Amino acid sequence: MSYRRIACLSTEAVETLYLLGAENCIAGISGFTARPARARKEKPKVSGFSSAKIDRILAVEPDLVIAFSDLQAEIVRDLVRAGVEVHVFNQRDLAGILRMIRALAALVGRAEKGEHLVVDLQTRLQMARSRAGALAQRPRVYFEEWNDPLISGIRWVSELIEVAGGVDCFAEESRRQAARERIIADPAEVIRRAPDIIIGSWCGKKFRPEQLRARPGWVAVPAVRDGQLHEIKSADILSPGPAAITEGLARIERVIANWAVRA
User: Fold this and answer.
1) For the chain, how many helices (H) and strands (E)?
2) Which position among 13, 145, 150, 260 has the lowest Cβ density within 10 Å, counted as fewest Cβ atoms?
């Protein structure tokens, strides 16, 4: 028997259930849900992301709560103490995103649809890799997840950059799970690594390229000098779900294609 009333505390779980045609199983969503847009009108908001009022979640009478990572550990603890069944995902790379989709599909009795979705996403990744193989040069890419302090991209973002034909300037840092572990203590390190492209995705606020240009010494960075400063909205790439591949990857590809024409 599959679950019928699911409270989703992360946006990628909502997105995935809609793609699986299982939106009727959703009893409540996070207030940060971005995709699909209609979910915000159709489903009650029962939590933030790292904070929640347990009574509000319990009010929708979930038979399962879907949570994400240690960032929601305290919420999960309180739900478990209240007798609620909880499944916590912790995907941090592309393989993990695909595993999450398969597992969530199984939980709602949509295993076959889940596999179709996974195959579609795998095909998109493979096609992007093939297109990247035709690039004459691979640009160095600095992905900035936050600006104060500077935080470089998480692992699935780093992998998407590589899939699209770029070289992540801080690939070694991407394997660190927590954002605080990916802080770039010395901004001059970005200058030293000389990215050809800078992509900003400041979680929850608009990317300001003029702020990058004003940073001491950054005028010497190839990406700043050549005007290769781009934004990808956080909803399109910073949630570890299908959109990172369907939307985020496509945006990175366009940025790199634009650079390749000028290079």
Assistant:
1) 13, 10
2) 260
Closest CA to 62 of 97, 37, 26: 26
- 1 band by pLDDT with thresholds 50, 70 and 90: low
Residue-wise pLDDT for 86-105, tens only, equals: 999 999 999 999 999 999 99
- Please report which helix (H) or strand (E) contains residue 251, including its range: helix 249-262
Which strands form 6-8's sheet, in the order they lie side by side? 45-47, 26-30, 6-8, 64-68, 86-89
What backbone phi and psi angles, to 5 degrees, belong to 151?
A: -130, 125
8 Å CB contact between 165 and 141: no
Q: What is the CA radius of gyration of the chain?
A: 19
Give yes or no for a contact between 67 and 89, defined as CB atoms under 8 angstroms apart.
Answer: yes
